[in-house]
Amino acid sequence: MANIEQTGANPEAEDVQRATTEPDRELTLEVDGLTKIYPDGTLAVDEIDFGIEAGDFCVLIGPSGCGKSTTLHSIIGNIPVTEGQVLLEGEDITETPTYDRDIGLVFQDFQLFPHMTVRENITYGLERIDCPPDEIERRVDDAIDLMHLEGLEERTPEELSAGQQQRVALTRSIVLEPQLLLLDEPLGDMDYKLQKRMERELLRIHRELDTTFVYVTHDQTQAMRLADQIVVMNDGKVEQSDSVENVYNSPATAFVSTFVGDSNVFRGELADVSENGEHALIETPLGSFHTSTENLRSPPSSLVGERIPFSVRPQHIALGPELENELECRVDDVIHQPGSGTKVILTATAEDGTETELQLKSFDRIDPAGTVTVSWSADHGTLLEETSVVDGIDLETDVLGE
Amino acid sequence: MTVTEIAIESLQKSFRSETVLRDIELNVEKGEFCVVIGPSGCGKSTLLKCIAGLVDHEAGTVTLNGTDADELSVQERDIGFVFQEFEETLFAHKTVAENVAFGLEQQDREFTEGEIDDRIDEMLSMLAIEHTKDDYPGELSGGQQQRVELARQLVRECDVMLLDDPLADLDYKLQKRMELEMRQIHRSLGSTFIYVTHNQDQALTLADTLVVMNHGKIEQIGSPTEVYESPATAFTARFVGDSNVFVADGTVATDGDAVAVDTSIGTLEAVPRNGSVSGGDGLYLVRPESVEIGDDDCDTVITGTLEGRTYTGETTEFAFSIDGLDREFLAVAAGRPDVGTVGDDLALGWDRTDAWYFENISATDTVTAADLVEE
Amino acid sequence: MSSKTADDGSGVSRYLPGDRSVSITEVTALTMPTVGWFLLFLMVPLLVVLYYSFLTYQSFSVVNEISTFAWVNGVFTSSVVHSAFVRTLGVAIVVTAITLLFGYPIGYYLRFHTGQIGGTILLLFLVIPFWTAELIRTFGWLPILGQNGAVNGVLMGLGITSGPLEWLLYSRFSQAVGYLQNYVVFMAAPIYISLSQIDDDLLDASETLRGDPIDTFRNVTWPLSKPGVAIGCMFTFVLTIGNFTVPTFLSGGSSTVSSLIYNRYSQGLNYPSAAALSITLLVVIFLFVFVLFRYVDITEIAN
After folding, report:
1. ipTM, interface predicted TM-score of the complex
2. Is 4Fe-4S tagged as a keyword (chain B) (predicted)?
3. Nearest by CB to A225, which of B183, B227, B310?
4. Which of A171, A259, B181, C28 counts the highest number of beta carbons within 10 A?
5. CB-CB neighbors (< 8 A) of C224 in chain A
């Protein structure tokens, strides 16, 4: 039921609650200073820390090569860890062999045992933990019922569709009632429509089971649809580990802002802070803009004179000069997305001739052309103290995983 | 004036006893970006292969720029083809530049060294991979490899480009980036693109014309807006975009423009689409974004219990349970509205003009309304 | 993904020219030499052998007269033949079992515990003996296992045994060693290929379902390697039955069917009888392979 608590009616009250750690909620998984260096010298994961609360649906995201797979494999225990600890329910399992960890894993390509029927696949784990036959019977029947697999019990995996295979893979793991269930891009190879349906199915199962899920994906929209908590990784480090709301609305770094959802990132010098400290003025090559200081970690006045990025979400940029921050742009492309409005690709040119690409999102059907003025309110400008926890990255290419 | 580049008439194709394409009629204009979508096995990839000449059709004609394609060999067709499985198609022992040059060397025209270099540079920079010019495919990321394959096909400047889900294997962010690039490339080349995908978001973003296929037949051809807002069949409405659907049990009352149909959750009103209303097998459908939460002034109002919500930044999706419905009922709203807490009973309303009632289920007769609910 | 289903399936077809009639003639043309070779050098000689088995044998010469004498006297009613068949099949079964016992770990080691280079080198070591003729390889055991051979020399030199071990050569032991050396590669290679088809993730799947390494081997690795085991057993079994050099030079003189065939013609030019025995052996081997493939689907190895 964690899903509900987090997305409750009063988001602001929740933000406060989130910020101060709740001592009464138990951590199912703790990753503490985890480091993994492969024999060839590659530093895949660099001293990362995060915790996952019991019953949460946690999604691990990041561009390819960010270390999310290595993290996953360290939690399962099929690669030796270079340094650090993995704790399950407070118990150090760093050295425990995989088959003694109370952790389930669902693979992207299912990995059902091809020589066993659906029922045998599901029974497999229960037989390994020496479950009495009548209990096996009961638990398997319950799981088949929960996952709507009735009638498929005697089929072999190759007689199933992709969606059914993934349901069997999931059933085979959850029938063991593990303390933690890891899912490694389980919907990656599926058709768009099937993915959408399986997402809803996963949410339903998570609600009914109350098991802790850790889900790995590169698809940030999927992450947002599924997660209670998101861990954003980049280049072997954790950029942010927080609730969906906070990751989207209070990103810790410019990387998070760009990677999770679309973002327009500007860079400039913080020139001035308003008297109440709630707004700041940023001077960029494209002009001066007012932003909110709410997202800053340090006192705004201490940052005056520093170069600092800020971001504006495409849906907060409006056509026309009505709002505080104005910018003149050239319209490059207008993409009508029936059902969700219009996306406009814009280019703004600075005095020195450098061009910046912007995106604007409207929920209505609009048809701008030529040169337009767009604007956004100061409250929708989110200041980001850091570009990334990784030094010297090129945001553009890093987000794409290249 | 528009010029027809590809004309397909009553095309038929089967593999062994299974018919994969039936009565395909499709005209693609010069310079058009045509996207074919449909569930797996609907025949969309086979259609591409028929156009390219990689498989034979048994009936009907494919006309390319006025010439019957049967008279042209694969090489004579001047068609570029990009596959989804790009790793198999790049030459591992050649550099990126050499791979792209290979595309040019296969052309009838002779190019000078300088011309080849210029065109390679131009194409690589258009796809933002100019820095990989001297690398080997094995050293590149998946996204870069796919762009090399694209460059190799695009550099030939064929009149027609066929693309079989070329972005499917890329990471989400890269896919989104490449969608924008793809529009740009299409515009600057002026070639005719036929693009196959199962990803309807991508289809809606890319297409001038959308072709929806199911069971080897075309369900609808139209602009993305037409297809989304005026679907020809219940299948199209269900396949493109999200929807809440209810099977109508046959009792239909007509009242002027509107009809009222009996479903498992009660009587619902809608405007009938495409064809007569006779009270046969029917499907009632309403899009999640048409549902107003907490609004009981609408034509149709039902009560649902809020089960969960999913915030995606731009929008929030709400899932409800409703008496008499064994599935979730979805509603979508912009931003992060405060509609209530989980467990609350809320009014869900929509106007009959925003809902649809179809008795025309699919171009294939054997598809029933119940099939579409299951999908 | 969507493009892969319900299409024509074969990945190669899209690279072939569209015109099917062209590709059929190409395929036919390409297989013709092989088919011709088999017809000319396998089927025709076999028919000749079959024909000979129905000729009559009279004191060191073959009479061109059709009879079933060779079949009735030389095969069906001969107790020497019966016991040779029983012995041959018995030896083949034991040899297959021993070879499996040694071959499986080699295949397993190659698959799971060697890198690319290590695996290649190990395979090379297994193949190197095959650069020598089988006869030479078999003879090679004589100076090693013989009374004055290397093994006995070392054992006596170290004082472990006082006299030479008699059972080393011309015994069941030397026979087993000879077969093992000849056939362990035929067993290990298909098992290695079969094991290579198993995705590492499948073994991880078993471990995350609480299967310890022994459980995982018993329930996942072993059943999935069965096609390779079947092919390896088939090779070893068939080759053992037909082998001539090992029973001739390393056994203590007990005859197998193949040595019997050799004797029939070399010691009396009894071609009809040798031919009948050859055909019988062929039928027995064929039946064995047929029965084996009814129970194990070796096509799985190709997936």
Report:
1. 0.85
2. no
3. B310
4. A259
5. 114-115
